[in-house]
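Case study 2.
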Amino acid sequence: MSTSATGSSVGWRVRPSVPVAAVVFAVYCVIVISLMQTSGIGYEHFFDTAADTVRAAVLPLAAGAVWLVAFLVWARWDHVFRDARRLPLRWGYWVLPVLMVLVALLHLVGVDWGAFAPEHLLAVLTASVLVGFTEETLFRGIVLRSLRQGDRSEGTAALWTTLWFGAFHVTNLLLGEPGAVLQVVFAALGGVAFYLLRRGTGVLIAAMALHGLWDFSTFLSGVHAVDGVATDAASFLTSFVYVAALVTLVVLVVRERRRPAAEAITAPHDASTAPAPR
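Prediction:
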């Protein structure tokens, strides 16, 4: 048995910590990236056909999901999928997730649906769901849970989760994606919205849903999009998404610099044991 930061006894097999999260992250990268490489399909062609999507995305991501679930079942970590308490979130922080939903819906309106066979759509949908599940379980789940252990502030936990998620996309260079450096920035900013949904709802599935929706819309529009008002509006608003994300992240980190991250993993009846804001 181990003792949590709040003093309660929990049944972890291994204590949540950044080094452990780093090992889980490294193994996930090896599994997923190596399987994507062995598919023989270049990154820009992952979603061209149903067969390409299954080989290059669905199977590698499914293998990554198995690894993450296996680790969590073995490790017995608490508060990965649900917070013990929902931290307060000001209404202004909801603007970013809502804006991302709007852009995703506009992308979907601008998709040439007739160009996709049903099996192709199903394959892309499956890949999108798996991306949402695996990356949120890893970053807003395992990584964030690790960063909330100890005496870090919630602002620090949010910042490092965001930066780690963005840096993860450097691995796309190994898949032949020269734009991976820019993806690091855009992914990190998008990750701010996923963090806000996790925090605002207290459950990880909300972040998974937005992540999956965002990727589904971008995967489809990247293959067959129709020039029109919806596509132009989505492109226009996307710039506002990233600007809003940057501003939100700065405000969040500054305002939350004194809120103990451990508050999120402290059950309400144990509130007296949580560190007080400094």
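The mean pLDDT is 92.
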